[in-house]
UniProtKB/TrEMBL annotation:
This is RUN and FYVE domain containing 3. Pfam families: RUN. Residues 540-587 have a biased composition (Basic and acidic residues). Residues 1-64, 540-633 are annotated as: Disordered. CDD domains: RUN_RUFY3. Residues 43-53 have a biased composition (Acidic residues).
Length: 633
């Protein structure tokens, strides 16, 4: 098709504003549709379509701008001739200007505006078709369902619109997976989807990961929440999209609001066997074209059953919404009671703060001469005043919030079709009020703590004043004593100065009288020092000589002693050998003699003993004489 070859310029279609025949979301997108509202809108459309004749043309018409495309003023546009039935969606096409260039000289951004409008309208058509088919088929859709596949193709075109190209080694690459990865940082619940997409084994390209992410978000029924969180952060999206991209303009917020209606659909996908990398994202416009010659007779029964099912579903939704409204009303009453209690507590706190301020002023008047303590007290008082003003501001904000909640409740009672969105807003407001109540209670606790701190500081300041007064009295006594001692020291200093002057005069006189004697004595002292040094040198020399001679004598003594000891030992050994020889001979002869000769043996034994004793005496005498021998010097 020609539209598929032109890219996203002519690819998406959508519904524009209706005259009142069919229920449709407001074009300014003051509120975002919810699942119940989409179902109710679809039911009303079906009822009105039963009463009216089917259109004799496709469910959209081509709008050719007179000059400049969508950027041109609306008065220049040339709409088609009016027809019977409901208003048709609009597909904007660029119309060549006088120069044949499509009017780009006067309105350079008309192409981007046309593409945004077409994508928004196509998203409306695809979402509406999905909701209607889900109501007819029991709200459960599979991945093989053609309108569901076309919805993902439309979302892919919306995310690719105005996408900046990233330069790589292989060239420029455009992928919408980068912006979808940011959702994990904005909404922590999306981390599970991102992790599961990265763990899928069959995905190899960023485009396949982005398609898998969209399918998992729809299964989780949080696609609208993720898109809202992403569109609200324009500062992060500016890194990936051009300034005129769909995600950066109002059309992106409108599409995010339309996605809320898909929360009523239960989608089942099998990611393992599906090839998401090689799919071709081309929109099939034949699904949104209707036969103008067909009548409603063949589909009358099916439409009646669908309308009845939708009515039953809307009634159930209304029952649930009424119950939620009652619960929210009870919560609002409880919040009003808590607000009254808080106002009373704040009044009591204000009275306490006033009394504390009066006490602070008294303390300031009494301890004005102490600069440091007064500064601390004034700082604390100003801090309390700021805290008081902040508490009053927060109280005013709470009262204003309470009035806003009451207005919202009155509006919700009159609008049952928008009740689910109002319920969510009220729940958010209740959470905020609870947080504010907790903050106010915390501020009351802080004020009480500040009161205790101020009382403690007042007591400590009184004690400090007393201590400082005592210190001042002690310091005054010490200053008086120091003044007396200073006077005495000054008198002593004067006396010492006089004595010094007298000593200087005496020194001058002494130098004048004994100057010559002092010089002569200095010369004598120098001469004596020279003699002393000469004598010290001679004394050192004599000491060295004496030490050398003494060392030699000691060495000679040791040598003679060793020689005498060795000589004496040799002689004693020779004599012992001589004495032992006859004894051995006698001992060898004695066993062979008879018993009769035993009478003669005492004499020989006694004589031998005497000889041995004499030899021992001689040896002992020699050993005693040997150490006493002195070496010859």
């Amino acid at each position: 098709m020609a539209e598929a070859e032109q890219g996203p310029l002519l690819s998406p279609l959508a519904e524009s504003s209706r005259d009142g025949a069919g229920s449709e979301l407001p074009p300014a997108m003051e509120r975002r549709a919810e699942p119940g509202e989409e179902a109710a809108a679809a039911a009303e459309e079906e009822e009105e379509d039963d009463d009216e004749a089917p259109p004799a043309s496709p469910p959209f018409f081509l709008l050719y701008p007179g000059h400049g495309g969508a950027a041109a003023p609306s008065g220049v546009w040339r709409p088609p001739a009016p027809r019977g039935g409901a208003a048709l969606p609009v597909l904007l096409l660029s119309y060549p200007g006088p120069d044949g260039a499509g009017g780009t000289d006067s309105h350079p951004n008309y192409l981007m505006a046309n593409e945004r409008m077409n994508l928004m309208n196509m998203a409306k058509l695809s979402i509406k078709g999905l909701i209607e088919s889900a109501l007819n088929l029991g709200r459960t859709l599979d991945s093989d369902y053609a309108p569901l596949q076309q919805f993902f193709v439309v979302m892919e075109h919306c995310l690719k619109h105005g996408l900046k190209a990233k330069k790589t080694f292989l060239g420029q690459n455009k992928s919408f997976w980068g912006p979808l990865e940011l959702v994990e940082k904005l909404v922590p619940e999306a981390a599970e989807i991102t992790a599961s997409v990265k763990d899928l084994p069959g995905l190899k390209t960023p485009v396949g990961r982005g398609r898998a992410w969209l399918r998992l978000a729809l299964m989780q029924k949080k696609l609208s929440e993720y898109m809202k969180a992403l569109i609200n952060r324009k500062d992060l999206l500016s890194e990936f999209y051009e300034p005129n991209a769909l995600m950066m303009e109002e059309e992106g917020a409108i599409i995010a609001g339309l996605l809320v209606g898909l929360n009523v659909i239960d989608a089942n996908f099998c990611m393992k066997g599906e090839d998401l990398d090689s799919q071709v994202g081309v929109i099939d416009f034949s699904m949104y074209l209707k036969d103008g010659n067909s009548t409603k007779g063949s589909e009358g029964d099916g439409q009646i059953t669908a309308i009845l099912d939708q009515k039953n579903y809307v009634e159930e939704l209304n029952r649930h919404l009424s119950a939620t409204v009652n619960n929210l009303q009870a919560k609002v009453d409880a919040l009003e009671k808590s607000n009254t209690k808080l106002t009373e507590e704040l009044a009591v706190a204000n009275n306490r703060i006033i009394t504390l301020q009066e006490e602070m002023e008294r303390v300031k008047e009494e301890s004005s001469y102490i600069l440091e303590s007064s500064r601390k007290v004034t700082k604390d008082r100003t801090a309390d005043g700021h805290a008081l003003t902040e508490a009053r501001k927060q109280l005013k904000e709470e009262t204003q919030l309470r009035l806003d909640v009451e207005k919202e409740l009155e509006a919700q009672i009159g609008m049952r079709q928008e009740m689910e969105l109002a319920m969510k807003m009220l729940e958010k407001d209740v959470c905020e009020k609870q947080d504010a109540l907790v903050a106010l209670r915390q501020q009351l606790d802080d004020l009480r703590a500040l009161k205790h701190e101020l009382s403690f500081k007042l007591q400590s300041s009184d004690m400090g004043v007393k201590q400082k007064s005592e210190l001042n009295s002690r310091l005054e006594e010490k200053t008086n004593q120091m003044a007396a001692t200073i006077k005495q020291l000054e008198q002593r200093l004067r006396q010492a100065e006089k004595d010094r002057q007298l000593a200087q005069q005496d020194n001058r006189l002494f130098k004048q009288e004994f100057g010559d004697k002092i010089n002569s004595l200095q010369l004598e002292v120098e001469e004596l020092s020279r003699q002393r040094s000469h004598l010290e040198l001679e004394l050192k020399r004599e000491r060295d000589r004496w030490s050398h001679s003494h060392q030699r004598s000691q060495d000679n003594k040791k040598g003679t002693k060793n020689w005498l000891r060795q000589d004496g030992k040799l002689r004693i050994q020779e004599e012992n050998a001589k004495l032992k020889q006859p004894l051995r001979e006698e001992n060898s002869v004695l066993p062979h003699k008879s018993s009769c000769q035993d009478l003669k043996t005492p004499r020989s034994a006694s004589s031998a003993r005497k000889k041995a004793a004499g030899a021992k005496k001689r040896i002992s005498a020699r050993t005693a004489v040997a150490p006493s021998v002195k070496p010859v010097q």
